[in-house]
Design brief:
145 residues
């Protein structure tokens, strides 16, 4: 049994969460800081969505390769996320159209929320602990079900 459906489900619900976060972040941001708050809330939610998508898509893409390429692709994607985050943080730090507190809080809620979504999706998946294993006396590997 492949983990790809679980990853796709996590990606779907994570992006759905990010869309809801964008709406809530924009509304709360507008109440806290007007137009700057709206922009900051939307940017924070967009960053959370992009970083979530990079992780899930890199694992989905990497699953088509051997184990060494898999780890190279996934670790490369995580390194790219780190670099992009640092660059964005430095670029957005002193912008007059950003409200830093709204941006920061939206990012924190986005990170925690997408982790919770991943946890719930994986916990509710019916993946076996071991798949494609041959037991003594078996002629073919079990399907895991």
């Amino acid at each position: 049994m492949s983990a790809l459906p679980v990853l796709r489900r996590a990606l779907f619900f994570g992006l759905l969460f990010a869309l809801g976060l964008a709406i809530v972040g924009a509304v709360v941001g507008s109440m806290a800081a007007g137009g700057r708050g709206i922009v900051s809330g939307l940017i924070g939610a967009a960053m959370a969505a992009v970083f979530l998508a990079i992780t899930a898509l890199s694992i989905i893409l990497a699953s088509k390769f051997d184990i060494i390429a898999f780890f190279g692709i996934v670790m490369g994607a995580w390194l790219a996320k780190f670099v992009v985050f640092i660059v964005l943080a430095l670029l957005l730090r002193d912008q007059p159209w950003i409200q830093p507190t709204v941006l920061f809080l939206t990012l924190v809620v986005g990170v925690i929320g997408t982790l919770v979504v991943d946890l719930v999706v994986i916990a509710k998946s019916r993946m076996p602990y071991v798949s494609d294993i041959a037991l003594p006396g078996d002629k073919t590997p079990h399907s895991g079900v």
